[in-house]
Amino acid sequence: MDGVVSVAELQTHPELDTDGDGVLSEGEAQTLLGGDSQMDPTSFHDRVWAAIRDKYRSEVLPTTPPAPSVPDLTEPKEEQPPVPSQPTEEEEEEEEEEGEGETEEEEEEEEEDFQVQGEQPKEAPPPLAPPQPASPTEDKMPPYDEQTQALIDAAQEARNKFEEAERSLRDMEEAIRNLEQEISFDFGPSGEFAYLYKQCYELTTNEYVYRLCPFKHVSQQPKLGGGSPTNLGTWGSWAGPEHDKFSSMKYEQGTGCWQGPNRSTTVRLLCGKETMVTSTTEPSRCEYLMELMTPAACQEPPPEPPADSDHDEL
C-alpha cells in the first residue's frame, strides 16, 4: 500500500456502483472521494467510510466462515413450483435473530477488511488537559544552609536599620526647615505673636466657612455641599502703618478670580481677651478684610513711676 486510497482501488469494488449498471466508473469513484483522485486513510475514514460501509466488500478473504446465503425470494417462473407457505411466527423470529447476527458479523468483517487494505487510520489525539497551576511547594525555593541564611538575615537587619535612619534623617531635616522658617518670621517686638504660629481659627457665616492660619494662609469653603477650599492668600508681611506696624497682616497671591486679580486678604488685629476671628467682609472684588481678636494686640500700659515715699525727718 502507498498510504492513500485512490480511484483505481475503489473501482475494484463494483458493489459501490451508484447508477445500478454494476460497474463503478472512474467518475463515480472520484465523486465518492469528494472530487479528488486520492485521499489519505484518515480523511477517507472520516468523510467517506460512513457512506459506503454498508455496500463495501473487501477483496481480502474473510477469516470467519461465510454466512449462509439468503434464499431467493423473487417471484418464480411459471414452470417453477409455487412459492412455499409463509413461515410461522417462531420461524420469523429465528430468521430475524440470524439476520441481525449476520449483519453484525458483516460489519465487523468490513471494518477489519478496510483496515487490512488501507493503512490503519490514525487515532484521534487525546483532548488537551487544561494546564494545572503550579503548587506552592513547586515554586518555593529550597532552604538555605545555616551560614547563608545567617548572612541573609544580617543583610536584611542592616537594610531595615538603614531605612529607619533615612526616615529619621528626613524627619530631622523637615524639623530644621520648619524651625528656620519659624525663626525667619517677625513675631513682634517681644515675640508676642509667636503663639499664633501653627494655629488656625475659623469663622462660619451663612454661606462660607473662613479659616485663618496666621503666618501661613487664609481660605474660604462653602458651608453647604462641601467642595475644595478657595485660597484667599498666603502670608506676605505685616501691613500696619509705620507707627503701628503689627496692627495688620497681608496675605497675597490667592486663587485668581474669574477675569480678575488674585484674591488677597488683610487681617486687622484687635485687642481682646480671647483669640478668635470676629468678622470677614469683601470690601472690593477679590479683596477680603478679616478681623482677628487677640491679647497679643493689646498695648502694655506704660510702667508707673515709683511713688515718692514720705520720710520722717529725725
UniProtKB/TrEMBL annotation:
It holds the Pfam family PRKCSH_1. Residues 123-134 have a biased composition (Pro residues). PROSITE patterns: MRH (PS51914). Transmembrane segments: none annotated. This is Protein kinase C substrate 80K-H. Residues 198-300 form the MRH domain. One of its GO terms (biological process) is N-glycan processing. The keyword Coiled coil applies. PANTHER family: GLUCOSIDASE 2 SUBUNIT BETA, N-LINKED OLIGOSACCHARIDE PROCESSING. The lineage of its organism: Eukaryota, Metazoa, Chordata, Craniata, Vertebrata. GO terms for cellular component: glucosidase II complex. The keyword Kinase applies. Residues 43-58 have a biased composition (Basic and acidic residues). It comes from the Eukaryota. Residues 88-114 have a biased composition (Acidic residues). Residues 148-182 form a coiled coil.
